[in-house]
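Deliverable D4.2, example record:
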Amino acid sequence: MGEFRTRWSVLAGRIERGTPAGRDRAVDALRAFAILGVVLGHWLVTALTTAKGGLSTTSPLVHLPYLAPLSWVFQTLAVFFLVGGQVAARGYASARERGMPYREWVGGRLGRLFRPVLAVLTLWAVASAGMLVGGVPPGTVHTLLKLVLSPLWFLLVFAVLTAATPLVARLHPLWPLAVVAAVDAGRFVGGAPERLGWINVAAGWLVPFTLGAAWSRGAAFTRRGPAVALLAGGAVTTAALIVWGGYPASMVGVPGAAVSNLNPPTLAAVAFGLAQCGLALLVCGPLARVMRRPRAWAAVALVNLSAMTVFLWHQTAMMAVTAMGLLADGDLPGLHTVPGDWTWIAARLLWLPVFAGGLLVCWGAFRIHEEARRTPGRGALASRARVAAEPEIARA
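Output generated by the structure prediction step:
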């Protein structure tokens, strides 16, 4: 333990010394919290059970609907898009000042975003073929693949908005918000086809993305007073839509539910996201002060360094632990059992450190696809410190 603390202090010191003075550390902290929120949310609301023979998915939100407020804490995608818009707009402005062509800027940014995806797709293509050849039921393979691939929609939307930064960076968030409201009115009041809702996949996430772009320009509504109004207005609107508008209380999809707030995003999800963005803007000051501590900043910098690796492999880690648990005699509580009462929740909380251990193994094996510039040997520590401390405008 003493050796670990010493090595951690050394690494934290190198990251601290290598961090540019003008870097906005609060932005990196928000990104790290958003990614970790998504990871914990998936681990808590996704259950792989053997109740139907083989592995099938369900959610404690199906059996315990009063847990819907849990989704309000861990559905943090709006914060990620807020930060993404801020970083993309700032990065593109910097690239233009340096005379960098758009193709070079967007190619570098999207390359860093999608390079880790290839490793996930390759491993699961091989694993799926192996499972089918080995006699695993196709339904089980489909269930596992769906859990792995479903988060990729988020990356596709994020990539499209990032590529469109020159077009949308100065778009006022009220415009995409109006589109979301109009689409929902068409779907839920006007009897329009359900497929109309897919417009909101772009429009819904464009709201926090353009808010982040405005943040990069120092727009007035990102200051404290307007941020408080954003938090309060978003929260009140969300509550009204749930109580009187008939929107689901859960901010994530619930298997079997007639309407999902997330797939595609509804006005309730966007309003809730605006409340989260308001809160994020309000805590930037305190976060910036905390990030002045070298060890706290080092932890955030390293999470950001492997953010896509963590995001892409966290479901695989959970499934690996679940599969290994099948070797035990009987179903393990909180791992293979139906989440029908509070005992499942208590048991699942005990499994979270095991999932984290599985994710750590995945991180060790696959982070190289994201940390492309890391060098081997004794220089690895210094290289990781240097990459983790790069200006945020240079990273996806």
